[in-house]
Every structure is written in structure tokens, then in C-alpha cells.
Specification:
Layout (H helix, E strand, L loop, with lengths): L6 H13 L36 E4 L2 E5 L11 E5 L3 E4 L5 H11 L21 H14 L6 E2 L6 E2 L11 H8 L16 H4 L31 E7 L28 E5 L16 E4 L6 E2 L3 E2 L2
Parallel strand pairs: 7-10
Antiparallel strand pairs: 1-4, 2-3, 4-11, 5-6, 7-8, 8-9
Length: 301
Amino acid sequence: MKPRLPRVWMVITLVIVVGCSTSPTPTAAPPTDVPEPTALPPERVKEEIKPITPEMILVEAGSFEMGSTASPDEQPVHTVRITRPFYIGRYAVSFEEYDRFCDDTLASRPDDRGWGRGNQPVTGVTWYDATAYCNWLSQKEGLVPCYSGKGKATKCDFAANGYRLPTEAEWEYAARGGQKSLGHVYAGSDNPDEVAWYVANSGGQTHPAGQKQPNELGLYDMSGNLYEWCWDWYAEDYYASSPASDPQGPPAPLTGVFWNHNRVRRSGSWREDVDSVRAAYRSLDYASYVGDNGFRLVTTQ
């Protein structure tokens, strides 16, 4: 073990060492390029995205003659009673409205094809996109969402006060003018150029909402411009067995093949002929296909 020096020698040694130092070591200056420590930034809070409340038009309950003799799937012409009043969008949902949904839910914005966004009717959305938007808007406005389930098993609670797609019967009743109907072939006129964007006058694209004349209820673009999704599954012969009151379409198809999962769409579009923009015209598309498809909202309160 190393011997310990007596306490007196330790003091002497210390004095000698200090005394022999000719230039004391300078104290280092505090660095000037190091910032003062700061608190960590607070966790980023997502900015709330507020929806645009759509302008809705009241459609009183009533009855009408649904269908026409122009096409097999529009027959037979039959009386349909709409037993509950409902509200329907004055315009189809626009890009401006739908883009807020996409930004809030981190969904991809649909392509506007270079035609512009804003109050252009949103197109390129699937049936499932449309129902998701309905539930989102309902929740944002404190309403009870109508849709539950996924895919082919999606269900609609028609008693809920949230936003939903119109049934095919509701859509045609509203397009024809409801109780104010004057019996026009197109939605608001017997002259398609007054109320519809279609292949002969559209210039090959959709147009902003409200540039044509409205129908008897004040609804715009229910003939032409773009197809609008309805709730119903499509069946060519459905009218032969449709209920007389508040029909909601046939049951879901039994096949599991997705291209047979067709939902009804109405209105015709900017690139369809004049026959396809009639109020009675029926069309269909895969529920999962974007196509030239947009939608219009309905609420029952």
C-alpha cells in the first residue's frame, strides 16, 4: 500500500505547487453560439376543418307516376307515394364542399380533369365515397349518421336525421317537381337546352352549378351535367314489383362479383345524349367505380 504523507507535508506541497505557477489558467468564456435551452414545441394540433352546410329544399310528401314507356327498365309506369317530406340539395355536392371532407379525413381528392374545382359539381367519386361524405357531414353538424356497415353490407337508417343519398323514387319525384310538377320531360322543361348540360351543349365537360334554369322546386342540374348516385341497388325489372309507398330498391345482389354490385344513378351527364337526361331515365354503375359520378344530399327530419 502506498504510504500516506503526513498532513503537514501535504499542505507544504500544495503551497509549493501554487506558488510556482507563473500564469494562472484562464477561465473559459461561456460560449456565445449555443442558444438558451427552450421548451419542446407543443404537440401539433390539427386545425379543425368546418364543412359547408348545403342549401336544402323542402319536398312535400305526395304521389307521382314513376317511370316511362321509353325503355324496358322504366316500365311499367306506376304510382308511387312518398309518405314523408324530405329535404334535398338545391345543387349537387361541389368540389369545394367535398375537398373539405378529403382534407379532414386525409382521403385523396378526386381529379377535376382540369375543369376547375370550387362550385363545379364533384365528380369521380364512388358510391362508398358518397356515403362516407354523408356520415362525415352528419357528424360535423351533430346529426345522427344514416349509414353503418361496410361494402355490400352497408345499411341505411332512414329514420336518422343525418344526410344520406336519395332513394331512386325520391330523386325522380324531386326531379319532376314534386307537388309542383308541370309534367315536363326533363327536370324543369320540355326543352333540354334550358335545363341540362349534355353532349350537344356541354363543350365536353361539366359546368358550375346553377347556370341552367331550375325545375319547379328550385333544384338545379337534375338533368345532365353529371350522374348522381342514389341509394338503391339496380335491377332492370324492379318496377314490376316495387312497393307502392316509399320504395327503397331491390335487395342486394346474391353474387359476390363486384361488377354486379350496381347502384342506381340518375340525371345523365355532360357527355350523354338528350334521351339520357330525361327525368325518368335510369342508369347504373359499379358501387366501387368513380366514373362521371357525383351525388346530391337528402335529409329526413
